[in-house]
Design a protein that fits this description.
By secondary structure, this protein is an alpha/beta fold. The chain has 6 helices and 4 strands. It binds flavin-adenine dinucleotide (FAD).
């Protein structure tokens, strides 16, 4: 199926000013837009987007996305009180999304919320992490830090882990 000209509404409950939105949403949308997908993006921005500095950041990002073929709209995310706040966001999101579907003649709607993964130890933790890291090492990929080692590291250990990885890479390169 050709992607060229497909009109997609992407709804993200993560904000585009957040690292998760920037790395896990925009990166992919930009690449797909290059291949011809016409994206309308609706996101839920955190409070920082509604400060004067945040509003400037949003305006700059909106222009940049527009040039890349992505039409961006955003609503304010509400966190508390938990259930009513989410219900409010959902109802408001549906209203705005329906309007965008009609206006941009959307063919496909994709909605997602990315929950950041967190290191949790289960009984197979050691074995599973070792398997993945051995495989990565065979591909000559070094991982470091809390998520790279998948260990509940604090800042000092994360930095030591990064330093050890840098030394291992240097040793490998000069071997
Ligand atoms: C609430 C909280 C309190 C803490 N308090 C302390 C404390 O008091 N003292 C202490 O020593 N430690 C503390 N820590 C732990 C400390 O924050 C971590 O140990 C440390 O930040 C881990 O560093 P890192 O570089 O491994 O990972 P991170 O700091 O998490 O960096 C990973 C980076 O990778 C980015 N990323 C993820 N996926 C992608 C992708 N696909 N593409 C591009 N970028 C990506 C992320 O956005 C992030 O910027 C705390 C952690 C939390 C969550």
């Amino acid at each position: 199926m050709s992607l060229e000209g497909r009109r997609v509404l992407f709804i993200s409950y993560n904000g585009m000013l957040q690292p998760l939105g920037q790395t896990q949403v925009l990166t992919y949308l930009r690449e797909l837009a290059k291949r011809g997908v016409k994206f309308t993006l609706l996101s839920f921005e955190r409070d920082n987007a509604f400060t004067p500095a945040g509003a400037r950041e949003c305006a700059t990002l909106k222009d940049e996305l527009q040039r890349q073929g992505i039409e961006w709209h955003w609503l304010r995310y509400h966190q508390r009180p938990s259930l009513p706040a989410t219900l409010f966001d959902v109802v408001r999101g549906i209203r705005v999304a329906s309007r965008l579907v009609r206006k941009n003649e959307i063919e496909l709607v994709h909605a997602e919320e990315i929950l950041p993964a967190y290191v949790i130890y289960d009984l197979a933790h050691g074995r599973n992490v070792a398997t993945i890291r051995e495989w990565l090492r065979e591909q000559r990929i070094w991982t470091a830090g809390r998520f790279g080692e998948w260990q509940y590291l604090n800042m000092d250990h994360s930095m030591a882990s990064g330093k050890a990885a840098a030394e291992a890479i240097l040793a490998d390169v000069s071997a």
